[in-house]
Design brief:
Blueprint: E1 2-4, H1 11-22, E2 31-34, E3 50-53, H2 62-71, H3 75-91, H4 95-102, E4 114-119, H5 125-133, E5 137-143, H6 156-161, E6 167-170, H7 173-182, E7 190-192, H8 199-208, E8 219-224, H9 233-245, E9 250-255, H10 261-270, E10 277-281, H11 287-292, E11 295-298, H12 307-312, E12 319-322, E13 336-339, H13 343-355, H14 370-374
Parallel strand pairs: 1-2, 1-4, 2-3, 4-5, 5-6, 6-7, 8-9, 8-11, 9-10, 11-12, 12-13
């Protein structure tokens, strides 16, 4: 049983889909519970997977929930919930908020016992709460796809439930190292489980996908990712301004959508580079763009294991990445540049990449670590 908020376009959703495709469905009955039955990757789930809408009050705003208690004259419950709300505000400890919202929510599938339940997005605390409190299972696991050293205050629920987990999976060695530093009491629970990608599928989709069509005769720079602060697109746009001032004939293309889209567009206009920035929107198949760009840049401020970096390594393009957790996979590549997280360092790295050759690469398929998962229930 996997628990996930939704299957919108993200590395997290993509990694879950790829994991599900390597589970032998003739040996295991697999269920996935979503808080929202939406997302571009839903059609890509294996047909054998049982899909469920999770019954939960966690997505109801605190204000609406509090008013509902008052309107039904549950004054003691309202007082207790308000106390929990204040506790959350002053301590960032959200367990009691989830508890009081969901205490009357029934167990998943009427309390049917599963062999294993996995909170696949442990950063989303409602997933972790539901896995631990509302699903009956012999084995319970957390899957963490974020750099916990960057968002320590969001993992209070880990201190409450971590010792009850059989295993806490992280996507690379550096992510595990940082997790162990933040949660030394859980070091014996943590383990590495590399995100799965299908090299054959990526190369096939690259042959089928759409690509640049604007007849630009300069150098094309590409970044793929959710348009949000931690992904570094604003730093990339500031870097583009410097590149243009140095007479580089470049355009920077962004694939993805998100809450910062309008902010990024406004920044490009303010800096006077709007004619050299192209927002291509969300795309479940960005691989032809990856194959055809002149330089790929991942300007993230924080990552744990960047799926798009893993994917673009299937092609020979020069690559520039900021020095985030998980960038270890780029080390050793002759046209790969790891730079500090700053506009100046990013600009310097892109200038080097613009002069670097494209390589002939033979990407290798990593063997999935599924034995680590299956051994917990055998």
């Amino acid at each position: 049983m996997f628990i996930q908020p939704d299957l919108g376009i993200s590395g997290l959703s993509k990694s879950l889909v790829e994991l599900l495709h390597v589970i032998p469905m003739n040996e295991y009955e697999v269920h996935v519970g979503f808080y929202k039955m939406v997302g571009e990757f839903l059609p890509q789930l294996p047909p054998e997977v049982h899909i469920h809408k999770i019954d939960s009050m966690s997505d109801v705003s605190n204000g609406k929930f509090f008013l509902s208690l008052l309107k039904s004259f549950r004054l003691i419950d309202a007082f207790v919930f308000f106390t929990a709300y204040l506790h959350d505000k002053f301590t960032a400890k959200r367990y009691w908020i989830f508890h009081y919202k969901n205490k009357n929510v029934p167990y998943f599938m009427d309390g049917e016992l599963f062999d294993m339940v996995i909170s696949y997005n442990a950063r989303t605390e409602m997933c972790s709460y539901y896995a631990m409190e509302k699903v009956r299972a012999k084995v319970k696991c957390f899957w963490i796809h974020q750099d916990v050293s960057y968002i320590t205050n969001r993992f209070e629920i880990m201190n409450r439930f971590g010792r009850e987990c059989s295993k806490i999976f992280l996507p690379c060695e550096e992510a595990k190292r940082r997790f162990d530093l933040v949660f030394p009491n859980l070091k014996d629970k943590s383990d590495v489980f590399y995100c799965i990608i299908s090299v054959e599928k990526i190369l096939r989709l690259a042959r089928q996908g759409e690509t640049f069509d604007d007849c630009f005769d300069g150098k094309r720079i590409l970044t793929v990712g959710r348009l949000s602060d931690e992904k570094g697109q604003k730093m990339a746009i500031r870097s583009l301004k410097i590149l243009l001032e140095k007479c580089n004939k470049v355009k920077w293309y962004f694939i993805g959508d998100g809450k910062d889209k309008d902010v990024c567009k406004q920044l490009a206009t303010e800096l006077g580079v709007e004619n050299n920035v192209v927002f291509l929107g969300a795309n479940t198949n960005p691989y032809r763009y990856m194959q055809d760009c002149d330089v790929y840049v991942q300007p993230s401020l924080s990552e744990s294991f960047c799926m798009t970096l893993t994917e673009v390594l299937c092609f020979g393009n020069p690559i520039v990445c900021t020095n985030f957790c998980g960038v270890e996979q780029l080390k050793g590549r002759s046209n790969g540049y790891i730079v500090d997280i700053s506009v100046e360092a990013l600009t310097d790295g892109v200038e080097k990449a613009l002069l670097a050759p494209k390589l002939e690469v033979l990407p290798k398929q990593r063997t999935p670590d599924t034995d680590k998962l299956f051994s917990l229930i055998q």
